[in-house]
Design goal:
The protein is an alpha/beta fold and 360 residues long. It contains 11 helices and 12 strands.
Length: 360
């Protein structure tokens, strides 16, 4: 019996993968907006905040915990830690890439992709941003395309990009690839080494606090100009605190932003949980719940946006029901005029059934 079959055979059908780590007071189906924090993350942040409030020695230091988070994220996405930069915003990392492109460069994006990914290229003067339907991205790469920027999973409706075809097309024309994995890392197995750049926030499927974000770069560090470099980007940060940073880090740490320490303290617990459970097992769990929900929608006469294999379900015509769901104790989102629900490790078949009952 495979992992998904074993999971579905228990209890109501599919049980939480992390019992005891979470204590939601609602049926929480909103991970695509913000993931829940596991109990160890809350405890670690409380302890760190208490230590800082009392001025304990070392409580203001952060390089050790940021390094541990960097290492955990690197393992999750399959690249060496030296190729991972840490910060607080995916948009800032996208802005870094946008600022590093030459004037006249063409950037190819998908229609309706998440603004934090695409807007930095639109506001950078001198770039030509071309937007096409998601399913046509690979076919639209052409001579002169400098960068293909696309989300692995679409935030609005959960559609999964054909990254293999996109990568092959980009390589054929010498274009670099930027993949936003914010809606995939943590449930969909990810190999960041297949792309020139990836960006990811830590507060969704990685179940960390807001204020954590990651950039992965190619082995040559992506050829980026470290326009946002501060003292933490120095090879020896404590020798880079005054005047120009004379020696940047020889790794992707040269692109680091000064971290939100408490957020990084909390981020470690979520990453460790993902690592412990394994993305393959999480994917089987999350997708099985999504498929159960899609099947129930079909029986009720609703039609989900086609998004095979996705943990995110988007339903046209139901964008106005979130208040009704909330009154029934079900948390979900409205995105692009549609209802959007998302399933993760703390969800179960009982959550699916509760959401379907609230919609009936």
């Amino acid at each position: 019996m495979d992992e998904m079959s074993m999971t579905m055979s228990a209890g109501t059908g599919i049980e939480s993968l992390a019992p005891g780590q979470f204590a939601p007071e609602t049926v929480y189906l909103n991970t695509a907006a913000t993931g829940l924090l596991p109990a160890p993350a809350v405890a670690a942040m409380h302890d760190a905040a208490t230590a800082h409030s009392r001025g304990r020695a070392g409580s203001e230091d952060h390089f050790e915990v940021v390094g541990a988070v960097r290492d955990a994220f690197a393992r999750l996405v399959g690249v060496p830690a030296r190729r991972v930069a840490t910060g607080g915003s995916a948009a800032v990392f996208c802005g870094l890439i946008a600022q590093s492109l030459p004037d006249g460069a063409e950037v190819l994006c998908a229609e309706g992709d998440f603004s934090s990914l695409v807007n930095p290229f639109h506001v950078r003067p001198g770039l030509h941003v071309r937007t096409v339907p998601l399913e046509k991205i690979a076919a639209e790469v052409r001579p002169g395309t400098a960068l293909v920027a696309v989300s692995a999973v679409q935030s609005a409706d959960g559609r999964i990009a054909d990254l293999r075809a996109i990568g092959e097309a980009a390589r054929a024309y010498g274009a670099r690839t930027l993949v936003d994995i914010s809606q995939s890392a943590g449930w969909l197995p990810t190999d960041a080494s297949a792309y020139d750049f990836t960006v990811c926030v830590g507060y969704k499927w990685l179940m960390g606090p807001r204020g954590t974000a990651f950039l992965t770069v190619s082995e040559d560090l992506g050829g980026l100009s470290p326009v946002f470099a501060g003292w933490v980007a120095g090879e020896d940060p404590w020798d880079s605190t005054y005047g120009p940073v004379t020696t940047l880090a020889s790794s992707a740490r040269r692109y680091d932003h000064n971290p939100a320490i408490l957020a990084y303290v909390g981020a470690l617990a979520g990453l460790r949980l993902v690592e412990e459970l394994g993305p393959e097992r999480i994917a089987a769990h999350d997708v099985a719940l999504a498929e159960r929900f899609r099947a129930g929608l079909g029986r009720a006469g609703h039609r989900a946006v086609p998004a095979d294999g996705s943990a995110i379900v988007s339903v046209a015509g139901l964008g106005s029901v979130t208040e009704r769901l909330s009154a029934a104790g079900v948390r979900a989102s409205a995105r692009a005029g549609r209802l959007r629900v998302a399933f993760h490790v703390y969800n179960s078949a009982a959550d699916v059934d509760a959401a379907l009952a609230a919609l009936s």
